[in-house]
Structure formats: structure tokens, C-alpha cells
């Protein structure tokens, strides 16, 4: 608990200092906040202040498995060309190599140039979830919500945010996102059928008190 208090306090102090003393522009504040959240996500994933220090042998970690189907779904629902598409393509390439941290950092670099690009924020959310082995970290949550706020009519941010929440076992939160999305999806479309089926499965699991297999 002490480690969390220190980490959170340092993040708040650093952000306040950057805004008040560093005078960073308003357009860069969201990127700075996302970077700080990425650091906290890394602490949540790997940090444990109760353990004693010990050296780590390089190269013993297992590379994350890239979800090609997820990337293809994103390309089908979001931008795959233009500036955002180039950053996302580079991020996907790093993800395939198991370099999940670098994949997220590439999108942060892209957002410095295009801070209001919903597709980049969506890609960052997916990349952060992959980096955290399926955990919807505070940074990923921020990225998904930012994508939805920039383009509230786009289906992709709500779809992938709900998918990440469902896979993480947050079924009710996923349903709350997918319900309105399914309602406004075109009648007879594949996405509407998929969402309605997923919602029915969630309802059944919530009713039975079961959780999806990890």
C-alpha cells in the first residue's frame, strides 16, 4: 500500500509540476497523462515493493502472443491508411515480435503529432492491454475513453473497449458498452449479430454467476 501511495503521489506531483512550471501546451497534457498512466500500469503489472531486491536475468521473459485476429478486426472497423494507419502498422509489427512496450510507445509518439486521432487512442488501448497480458490498466482505460470522446459515433472504440473488459472478466461493464452499440448497429449486419450473441452470453454468465475462462 505504501508503494502505491508513493507512486501515485509522485505521478500527481510530476503532472502538476509539468503543467505549472514546465508550461506544457494543452494539446500535450493528455499525452503526458497517458505516459504517466502507462508508468503506473507497469508498476501495477510488475511492481512489488514488499519483495527484496534481486537481479533479473535478461532474456528469461516470455514474449506476449500477438492477437492477429484482433488487429484485423481493428483494421476492418477503424482507419488502416493515412498517418494513423502508418503508426498502427508499425505498432502491430512490434507486437508480433512480442515487444509490447515498444508497440505502445510507438503509438504514444504518433499521438504527440496527432493528439485528437481516435484511431491512435484506440490502438494505444489495445496495445496497453496486450502489454499487461489482458489486464485493462488505468492507461488502457484512459486511452479507450479518450477514443470514445473524440469520435462518439464510431463503433470501434466501444467495441474494443467492451471486448477488453469482457476478456478481463468485467462482464457488466462490457455489457453496458455493447448494449447501446448493438442497438444502433445496422439491422442484419455482422457486427449487430455478433454483439447480440455476445450480450446473450454475458447475460447467461451473469445470471449463473460464472466467469469467462481466462
UniProtKB/TrEMBL annotation:
The superkingdom listed in its UniProt entry is Bacteria
Query: What name does this protein carry?
Result: Cytochrome c biogenesis factor
